[in-house]
Design goal:
The chain has about 450 residues and is of the alpha/beta class. Helices cover about 35% and strands about 20% of the residues. The chain contains 15 helices and 18 strands. It has helices at about 80-95, 95-110, 140-150, 185-195, 220-230, 245-255, 260-265, 280-290, 300-305, 310-320, 335-350, 355-365, 365-370, 405-415, 440-455; strands at about 5-15, 20-30, 30-35, 45-55, 55-60, 115-120, 155-160, 165, 170-175, 205-210, 235-240, 270-275, 295, 320-325, 390, 420-425, 425-430, 435. An eight-stranded mixed β-sheet has the order 3-2-1-4-15-16-17-18. Strands 5-6-7-10-11-12-13-14 form an eight-stranded parallel β-sheet. A two-stranded antiparallel sheet has the order 8-9. A hairpin with a 2-residue loop joins strand 17 and strand 18. Bound molecules: zinc ion.
Amino acid sequence: MTRSASSFHCELAWLGGDLPDADVRIDVAGGVIERIETGAQPAQDAVPLAGLTLPGLANAHSHAFHRALRGRTQRGPGTFWTWRDDMYRLAAALDPESYHRLARATFAEMVLAGVTCVGEFHYVHHQPDGTPYPDPNEMGAVMLAAAAEAGVRITLLDTCYLGSGVEPDGGLRPPLDGQLRFSDHSAARWIERVERLFGRTGPTSRVGGAVHSVRAVDPQSMGMIAAWAATRRVPLHAHVSEQPAENEQCLAAYGVSPLGLLGRRGALSERFTAVHSTHVDAADVELLSRTGSMVCMCPTTERDLADGIGPTADFAQAGVAICLGSDSHAVIDLFEEARAVELDERLRSGVRGTHDAASLLAAASAVGYRSLGWPDGGRIATGALADLTTVSLQSVRTAGTTPGTALAGVVFAASAGDVTDVVVAGEHLVRDGRHRSIDVTAELDAAIRATWAAAA
Ligand SMILES: [Zn+2]
């Protein structure tokens, strides 16, 4: 990736306040915003960005290969657990080549949707029978390559996954056949493998860690992973309380909630993000608040999987920062995730206006960047990463918006298809809704068909 200087002239740009500013010139050097001028004259040396320019959007929770499930799990009655059977059938068919192709196409779909930074919660580590590939980090490496090719910034959240559930006495059940390829057998071996990933990142990629869930990692291993993440000063994520059954098993075995257990083992901190946190209680919210932990809501997946509605009003009141993820990629649209946080809360509480447009945009940008270990991203500010997402205000969904209504108009009505331009590290990746180097539709189609053909 070149690191040349460039300039952009934004018709409107959101610099973090209640209203966007007009005629904003953004000068970029070395992938970073060097200078911002509001009320600037359009100039020949600045690329014009019509519409509303936002900080680049962060998709803080992704399993890229789940994109192949879209449209294929919507049949008959079922639950999270029946959906998971479909997902395991897909996971069993993956190899490094198909994992790479799916991820490259899915990351490119994200870029078209305005996503400039992704957190990939990566747990398909080994061959289907659990044997490591000759390069034990081959699957992680193809994920890093896929992100670089699509142009998206990535934090590879390498995920520790050791077992299939909690025994009532606190022991961990061994992995099921479909989970063998996720497991490194111990936290120590997981750490040893992940340590070797650090040398393989580039200027727009980083490594973080994840505890898959209390279902898949025992408390002692959780403590080792937490200590490792603290020493390494990297983000640590975990699926938390997505399903009531997880809470019940955790309480029966350990006498405490999943967040309570993670807290006891030292996992909660300002670098920790609890993904989902759908079924949490007041003590859990207090624990998140006290430790400065974040939550990642994935509303389109949570509704798709019939998980439930998380207590986002309680998070907001307790000062727990919320970020967003498209998780299973039932859809990839950060505006849909953002407005769902507020609209689901309206359905739950009967009250409108808990989360305003600016706070939802912050969830989709700055908070996500912080969660993924890029605290200097997700803002349009001097010294911030030069990642930008521009949304048309002249689409059928956004026409009629004014500077005064643009933020709410975009958050509550725009779609991913209204994104016209995307800049990552100063590189203009998407112009007029087209990716610079990837035919995204064709690659998605080919990658998904080939993967299912291999699964048949
Ligand atoms: Zn997930």
